[in-house]
Each structure stands twice: as C-alpha cells, then as structure tokens.
Amino acid sequence: MPNYKAPVTDMQFLLHDWLKTQDHYQRLGLSDYDADLVNEILSQGSKFAEEVLSPLNREGDEQSCKLEDGKVTTPNGFASAYHEYIANGWNAMLGTADYDGQDLPNSIAVPIQEMLNSANVSWRLISMLTESAVLAVTKHGDQALKDTYLAKLISGEWTGTMCLTEPQAGTDLSLLSTKAEPLDDGSYAITGSKIFISGGDQDWTDNILHLVLARLPDAPAGVKGISLFLVPKIMVEENGQLGAPNTLSVGSLEKKMGIKGCPTCVMNFDSAKGWLVGGPHQGLACMFTMMNDARFQVGLQGLSISEAAFQGALEYARDRLQSRAPQGVQEPSSKADPIIHQPDVRRMLLTQKALTEGSRALSLIYAQQMDIERFGDEASKAKAENIIAFLTPIVKGFMTDMGTEVSNLGVQVYGGHGYIREWGMEQLIRDARITQLYEGTNGIQALDLISRKLARDKTGTMLTDTYELFAEKVSQIGHADAKAQAEAILQEWHQTALQVKTVSPVDLAGAAYDFMHYSAYSLLGVIWLSMSDTATQSENTVLKQGKANTCAFFLKRLLPRKDAYKTNLLNSAEDLMAVEGSEFDYI
Ligand SMILES: Cc1cc2nc3c(=O)[nH]c(=O)nc-3n(C[C@H](O)[C@H](O)[C@H](O)COP(=O)(O)OP(=O)(O)OC[C@H]3O[C@@H](n4cnc5c(N)ncnc54)[C@H](O)[C@@H]3O)c2cc1C
User: Fold this and answer.
1) Are residues 68 and 104 in the same domain?
2) Alpha carbon of 309 to ligand 1 centroid (Å)
3) Is 534 in the pocket of ligand 1 (CB under 6 A)?
C-alpha cells in the first residue's frame, strides 16, 4: 500500500491564499480561527491519518469484517483507532456546543475529513454516517431526543446509521414497507428488514443509534407516507444508563467488492422500540438533512481516493525503471530511465493531479458555503443553501466518477504490478467503485441536478446563486487573459443551463448525466484559472509553477471533454429510446 502523506501544502494554499478564509471567518464572526490555529489542526489531523489510519488500510481489506453469534467484529486495530479518534475530540468537530461539540467551521473540518478518507475510507464510513446522524437529530429531533442522544453521538461514544434501503426499495423509496406501530408510551414498534446498512453493527461502541425510515399505519402511499425513527441498539434508561437490548439483529454481512473493513449489514427490526424524529410522514425530508450531508461526504471520498491513487502512482513512476525516455537518456548510470519521463505516463499523472486538485478546490468552495449556511446572516444563509443544493449532486456525482477514473489510472501507471494485491492500487479501485453507487447512484445525482435543481426550480435561484458565486471568483482573477477565458467558460455554461432547462421531460432525463459532467468540467475550468492566478503571488515557487503547468494541462487536455458532453446534452433522447425489446440483444 502506498504511504499516504496528507497534502497539507495544497490545503493551506487553498484555504489561506485562494479562499482567503481569514477574511471569511472575520465576516462570520469566527476570527478566533487564525491561520496558526488552522495549520495546527491540519497538522494534528494529518498525523492521525498518516500514522494511525493509513497503516490499517490494507490489513482491513485483507481481513474484512466477521459476524459470529450475532456480533460483528471489525479488522484488527480499527476499534482502537476509533477510540483514539474520539478521545482526541475529532468526532466532535462539527457538533453543536450545546451538546459539547466544537462547532468548528466546515472549511477546517473538510480537509481533515479528506485525510481520514484517503488514509482509510472503510474505517471512516462509520464516523461519517454518525456526523450525518448528528445533523438529522439536531435539526429534527425534539428536546427529549436531543437530550438523551445528541451528546453521545457528537462525542462518538455511540455511532449512528442510516437505514433506508430494503430489497425492493433502493432508488425508489416509495416502495419501502418497514412498519411503525404507535405504542401507548409515545414510542413506536418498528418491524421490517433493511439491507446494505453500513456500520449496522460494530465492536467499537456499546450502543448504536439507527435512523430508520418506516411507514405509520395511516400513512399515505408513496414517499409522502414515510416517517423517520431513531431506534437504539440498546435501550437507554431515564437516568441515561444502558438497559436491555432492543429487538433488532444483524441478519448477515454482505461480501463486497471493496470497503471490506466496513461492515455492511442486513438489519432485522422485530417490533424494535423507536422514537419519531420530526413530524409524522415527514421522514424523507428529515432524512434528506442526513443524506445531503452524506452525499457531499461521499463526493469527498472520491476526491480522497483520487489523492491516494495519485500519490501511489507518482511515487512508483519516479522509481520504476523501464525503457529510455524519448527525449534522451535521463539516468545514464541506469540501464533504463524512470517511467515518469515518458509522455504517456505524464499524461496519466497530470490527469490524476488536475482532477484531484480541482476537486479539492471545489470541495472547499462547498465547505465555505456550509460555513455561511451555519454562521452567516439570513440573506447570505439563503444564498448558501441554494448553492449547496445545486452543487451537491455535482460534487457527489462528478468527484466519485473521478475517484474511479483516477484510481484506474493509478493501476495503469503501475502496469501489471497495479493488478497485484500487494501494491494496494487495485484496492483503491475497489474502494472507489461504491462511491458511484451509494447515497443515490450517480445517475440519480444527475437527475436531481437537472430536474429538481434546474428545471423544477421555478425561481431559478439555485442556478443564479451558483452562477454569481463563480462570477465573483472570475471577477477576482488578476490576469486579463485568464479572466477573459474564465468569463467565457462561465457564460457558456450559464447559457447552456438556461437552454436545457426548457426541454421535454424525456430529453431532460436523457441529458442529465451529460449536463452533470458538462457543469463539473466548466466549473473546474473557472476554478483552475482562478487558482493558478492566485498561485502567481505565492512565495512557494514549486507550487506556483506546479499550479500554472497543471492549469495549462487541464485547459488543453481535460476541459475539451465538456464540449462532447455539451453536444450530447443538447441532443434529444430519441436515439436512447429508439432501440426496442429484442433489438437490444437479437436472442
Ligand atoms: C456497500 C454498500 C453500502 C451501503 N450503505 C447503505 C446504508 O448505510 N444505508 C442505506 O440505506 N443504504 C445503503 N446502501 C444502499 C445504496 O444506497 C443503494 O444500493 C443505492 O441507493 C441504489 O439502490 P439499488 O441498489 O436498489 O439500485 P436500483 O435502485 O435498483 O438501481 C439500479 C440502476 O437503475 C438506475 N435507476 C433506478 N431508478 C432510476 C430512475 N428513476 N432514473 C434513472 N435511473 C434509475 C440506477 O441509477 C442504477 O443504475 C449501500 C449499498 C452498498 C452496496
């Protein structure tokens, strides 16, 4: 497995120089977070990721999880790493101070979360879902629920899960059939089976809080009849002590392609006691609080795996001696030159680097909007909410597709050795692949973007607010050529978005995936021009030159991908729907 080194220099450049977070914190009344404090948090986070989590990653993949006598055990070292994580307060980074959280800005937490995922995405998944559960309970739980559970979830003493999926109800949650019967004491008896539940059981904590979607007896059909319930693994007594086990169990563990260190469970609820979170039949809206955060976090997993794959490929390309470089002998003392001197290997490494650093910059733009949503005034909060809504499917869909492309390139740079387990590169592809599927497949992200966030947003403010945010970035570019180029990319994207939103529903659905990628490449074009413009002021000459050259590569070789996506998205869906029945297979 390649040794992971957190990309702290790039993170510091993006936070301090490019996004000017010190000014941003000042505007939000968060001026305690000066640059030294931010750097110290990044440094401590990188130590934990590099020294504690990364060494467990390969072993976790080899060992995977086990289910014995109804109890799950995770790979060696995972539980003690988690105990160290919560003891050092990392789990509480984003929790509210009302329940002993640290209320840290997201723009500081997100780089740490990236590091955790790069080091060991399987391990990270459970704490990620716990953070999302904290958000749902904080926003929708009543006072009693918060007082009973929130402090434990925020500290990480207990973990959270998200129980949506059933065998017949994946993308289409209107089909879910788990039932909730009201009981005399105000609680509910939950009965049904959920599949694919990440962290459904583990050997890290003595309680787990399941957030379960189920139907009340009087529920209307479809998604409007779904409610959300908090169902503890172990009942909590009035004095806060743990009581009897609840009537729920792990049916089995899934055998998976990747993220093997994370237990993926079939969960059976057999009249298990639960409490309503939010109003009756409001479950999907409440769960969306959790899902939207989780979608961003899954996008971050794509970025994180890209970074790990790039680091592995770069190290290998510098070491591996094969052939002579076409531009002439590079290492006369060796029989061959390092493959990094081959233009085709350069193409792969630069594709990895440009996509990874561009995605990181996008994730931090998003994180800054999360800060504004939490700490800003009413007007700026509303705008931030719109931008977050618009960018969520792009971050999730694009950055996870990139995670797979970049980890695939990682294997390619290693040649046949990339296919062999001991090098760790094939694990990255297997771990990345799930990110395109869970939290809503990327096809569904694309539909969410083009339909809910674009065509059905009658006021058009989600698009407008996003456009204005990027227009502001363009206006700050100092160099006239770069500014004009960024302006042209942004205008073309905005006009195309306005054009596509008026097409028929079938054409819109047919255009969805292409529009998501077209949007992502366009926005990354603006980001790269803006980043490299800022880097011209940097005292770090390596970073300055690296950003300039990578920007040039992105503009020349990756940005043109957007034109193919644009052509496709403006086509009607006629060709997609023309092939009928046996025309698919001639059998
Ligand atoms: C390892 C793992 C961990 C998971 N963790 C969790 C978890 O913790 N909690 C949880 O609740 N779930 C979890 N899931 C479930 C996951 O979120 C679902 O698998 C996912 O949402 C897709 O549902 P599905 O598998 O039923 O696919 P389906 O919904 O059957 O989709 C199959 C294909 O059809 C496409 N499709 C379906 N409907 C449409 C449509 N309307 N328009 C266009 N295309 C469509 C999809 O994009 C996909 O390509 C996990 C899954 C895995 C594999």
Assistant:
1) yes
2) 25
3) no
